[in-house]
Design a protein that fits this description.
This protein is of the alpha/beta class. The chain is 27% helix and 17% strand. Helix 1 packs parallel to helix 2.
Length: 353
């Protein structure tokens, strides 16, 4: 894999004012066109690498954006800031009753962005058709293993059958190509990777294996325990014939590999090496939390409060300017590999994937 040596943030910069119009740009010339929107910090699983068994202190309801507030921010993002893709995340977005309403309102925007969803799949079987009708274009389902006992141990819930049913429902609803996101267990993960790829090739899903990142609620992540992208690739090559996908990667987080058999390409697998091979130089993301905070990086230590602006009566020009300023100050990289790296206070469940 090609290493992009850009993982350490630039500090002590003197910034000029952010541009007042044009693309949503930062001082390194990166343009944010992809907005990740966390709809809630709530989740109905308790994955060991994400949160404790008893859960977390959830955001009070009045601190979360209302559907009307969220739709206003989405309109500003798409019509004023040039956002062309919106991904709804959580927590678990399927626990949000107004999910279809927000998807439909996003689909009504002009220009219409591409709309995607990242979910754990619990409850998806009963909502996939409605989400497709509302305007959802694509979906990613988190699934770390296809072994029932391992699934229950990782998620602390015996819900594998529900996730598999959700995957089938998404495929039947026409949400092609369904992607499966996997974060591998430190002990069983390499075996799980092989089984997951066989499963996804057989079902027509695209597997994406993601390195575990230091975003757990307990701040217990250890580099020496996490399964690396290089180890995943080496293991998969023992069982499959892989070649680099010829399509340009662009700003996509996953490095794609074609999977071959004797008759040709049977599918693709993506590996997201967020820690070991940082791709910050091509990042095109802006993030909005469920309580209305803009984050210019998954690992940002600072946030910009758009909810306070909304509720104080700020006009669209003021909100746009605050959003632009937040993105303008984005660091060069996430800094995980810096000796002074400090994990964000918020865990992944509160930031959004």
């Amino acid at each position: 894999m090609t290493v992009v040596a850009l993982g350490v943030p630039t500090v002590h910069r003197t910034l000029s004012p952010a541009p007042v119009d044009g693309p949503l740009i930062d001082t390194f010339g990166r343009v944010a066109t992809d907005l990740r929107v966390s709809l809630t910090d709530l989740c109905n699983l308790r994955c060991t690498y994400c949160m404790p068994a008893e859960g977390l202190d959830w955001l009070p309801g009045d601190q979360k954006l209302s559907p009307e507030e969220l739709i206003r921010l989405l309109r500003i993002a798409v019509t004023r800031l040039g956002i062309t893709g919106v991904r709804f995340t959580g927590g678990e977005p399927l626990v949000v009753a107004h999910l279809e309403e927000v998807v439909a309102a996003t689909a009504d925007l002009d220009p219409r962005p591409e709309i995607t969803l990242t979910t754990n799949g619990i409850g998806l079987a009963g909502r996939a058709d409605a989400l497709k009708r509302a305007g959802l274009d694509r979906i990613n389902v988190s699934l770390d293993t296809v072994d029932g006992e391992r699934f229950a141990a990782i998620t602390r819930r015996d819900r594998l059958a529900d996730v598999l049913a959700g995957l089938r429902a998404a495929r039947s609803a026409g949400l092609h190509q369904v992607k499966v996101n996997a974060v591998l267990d430190p002990v069983t993960g390499l075996d799980d990777a092989v089984a997951l790829l066989r499963f996804c090739l057989g079902e027509g899903y695209q597997l994406r294996i993601i390195e575990q990142m230091p975003l757990d609620a307990g701040h217990s992540w250890r580099r020496d325990r996490a399964v690396s992208a290089d180890a995943v690739l080496a293991t998969l090559r023992q069982h499959f014939t892989l070649t680099p996908d010829p399509a340009p990667r662009g700003s996509a987080p996953a490095q794609l590999w074609q999977v071959h058999d004797g008759a040709g390409v049977t599918g693709r697998v993506g590996i997201i090496a967020s820690v070991s091979h940082a791709f910050c130089a091509a990042c095109d993301r802006s993030r909005l939390t469920a309580d209305g905070q803009v984050r210019n990086c998954l690992f940002a230590r600072e946030e910009t409060d758009l909810r306070a602006l909304l509720r104080s009566g700020a006009d669209d020009d003021t909100i746009e300017a605050a959003w632009r300023a937040a993105m303008w100050s984005k660091a060069a990289g996430h800094g995980i590999n810096d000796p002074d790296f400090v994990q964000p206070d918020r865990p992944m469940s509160a930031i959004g994937g």
